[in-house]
């Protein structure tokens, strides 16, 4: 009897833990709305926020109807089946494929917050110029044909990248690389904003508040991916904060050397860069590894945002690719370098711990994710263009999307 009560208490504690982590990840999407909203011009702040809240509405419905089933139900190595459509047979009882303790329905909700956030991240690339109706169609198709397959490859029952042995603790491939490269493709296909060279953040305090909420929610994002409170979860907790702090230092150091002064926008961007970089590695690496990952992540994302974007001259408005794409790629490679069985015996040893094969597996996963997400995003965009204007017209862009698409103004003059 005492054993039963103790065991039940442990199960309840784990469920409460993941419930709280789910709420933390949920708050990241409104955080993205504020983070992105502060970085655009004042005439586009509400339309930018609508991308995040639109994702919360549309993907929440899509996920319970079919998205979760395609991503996580048993299928083949590339896509799940339809047996969990409309959450059929997804109830309170645990599913042993993912956890023998947690309610299956809770695991579904936790994963839903990831699917919503990923779509919201993409929107930063085409801010201030995409038609909202085209955006809604895009996120439905992208979630079904890009997000669900990649999630199944990495985390699903029988996914081929999982069988290969590639590691992605909390979404380096699934969330950040897929959203970053898809945002880049969209930015290239939609074209540059008319006033791209003269754009500047209209409210850095708003961006700072949003970025802080994203950082706060990231603890649920990474720590919750352990699915239980154990040594791996605590390693992910410490590594997440360490990498975020190191990302600030890495970004600010390069910014200080390059521009002769550190900025608050650079500080919060560096934190996000560090968080993105540690995401695939959070539960697999030691503290020294997370420190290096965050430090390099901050520096390399600064390079992506300011040098690479300037060199190629694409208009990734809010640096979805510069932060999430580049940071995710580095994080995936770094996992292949710094992962160690000493931290997580369910992972693998990386190159610096004696096994170079993990690095090869990580590179394969990264390349496949990049190519697949880019190709399918391009196809989806071309199809949408046949039926709906994907970009607003010049007059709408000049007047601002808040007023012309939504009939609202963020600030009353």
Automatic annotation (TrEMBL):
Entry's transmembrane regions: 15-37, 49-71, 105-127, 134-154, 174-191, 203-221, 233-257, 264-285, 291-308, 320-343, 363-388
Membrane topology: Multi-pass membrane protein
UniProt domain Ammonium transporter AmtB-like: residue ranges: 16-411
One protein family per Pfam: Ammonium_transp
Organism of provenance: Listeria grayi DSM 20601
Keyword Ribosomal protein attributed: no
Keywords: Ammonia transport, Cell membrane, Membrane, Transmembrane, Transmembrane helix, Transport
Subcellular location: Cell membrane
Keyword Cell membrane: yes
Family: Belongs to the ammonia transporter channel (TC 1.A.11.2) family.
Molecular function in Gene Ontology: ammonium channel activity
Protein name, as recorded: Ammonium transporter
GO CC terms, sorted: plasma membrane
Gene3D superfamilies: Ammonium transporter AmtB like domains
């Amino acid at each position: 009897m005492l054993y039963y009560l103790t065991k039940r208490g442990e199960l309840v504690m784990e469920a409460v833990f993941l419930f709280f982590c789910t709420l933390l990840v949920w708050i990241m999407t409104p955080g993205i709305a504020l983070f992105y909203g502060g970085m655009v011009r004042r005439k586009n702040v509400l339309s930018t926020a609508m991308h995040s809240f639109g994702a919360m509405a549309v993907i929440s419905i899509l996920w319970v109807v079919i998205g979760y089933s395609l991503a996580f139900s048993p299928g083949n190595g590339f896509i799940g089946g339809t047996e969990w459509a409309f959450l059929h047979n997804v109830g309170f009882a645990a599913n042993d494929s993912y956890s023998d303790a947690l309610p299956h329905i809770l695991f579904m909700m936790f994963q839903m917050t990831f699917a919503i956030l990923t779509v919201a991240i993409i929107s930063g690339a085409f801010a201030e110029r995409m038609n909202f109706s085209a955006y809604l169609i895009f996120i439905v198709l992208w979630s079904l044909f890009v997000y669900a397959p990649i999630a199944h490859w990495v985390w699903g029952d029988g996914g081929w990248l999982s069988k290969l042995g590639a590691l992605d603790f909390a979404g380096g491939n699934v969330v950040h690389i897929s959203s970053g490269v898809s945002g880049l493709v969209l930015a290239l296909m939609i074209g540059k904003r008319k006033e791209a060279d003269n754009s500047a953040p209209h409210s850095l305090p708003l961006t700072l508040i949003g970025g802080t909420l994203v950082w706060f929610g990231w603890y649920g994002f990474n720590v919750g991916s352990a699915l239980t409170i154990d040594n791996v979860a605590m390693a992910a907790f410490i590594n997440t904060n360490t990498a975020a702090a190191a990302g600030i230092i890495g970004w600010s150091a390069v910014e200080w050397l390059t521009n002769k002064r550190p900025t608050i926008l650079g500080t919060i961007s560096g934190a996000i860069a560090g968080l993105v970089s540690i995401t695939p590695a959070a539960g697999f690496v030691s503290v020294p590894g997370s420190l290096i990952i965050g430090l390099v992540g901050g520096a390399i994302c600064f390079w992506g945002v300011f040098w690479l974007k300037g060199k190629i001259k694409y208009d990734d408005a809010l640096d979805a690719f510069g932060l999430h794409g580049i940071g995710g790629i580095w994080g995936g490679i770094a996992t292949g370098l710094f992962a160690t069985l000493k931290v997580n015996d369910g992972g693998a040893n990386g190159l610096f711990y004696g096994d170079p094969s993990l690095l090869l597996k990580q590179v394969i996963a990264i390349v496949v994710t990049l190519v697949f997400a880019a190709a399918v995003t391009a196809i989806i965009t071309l199809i949408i263009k046949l039926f709906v204007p994907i970009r607003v017209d010049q007059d709408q862009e000049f007047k601002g999307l808040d007023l012309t698409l939504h009939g609202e103004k963020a600030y009353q003059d």
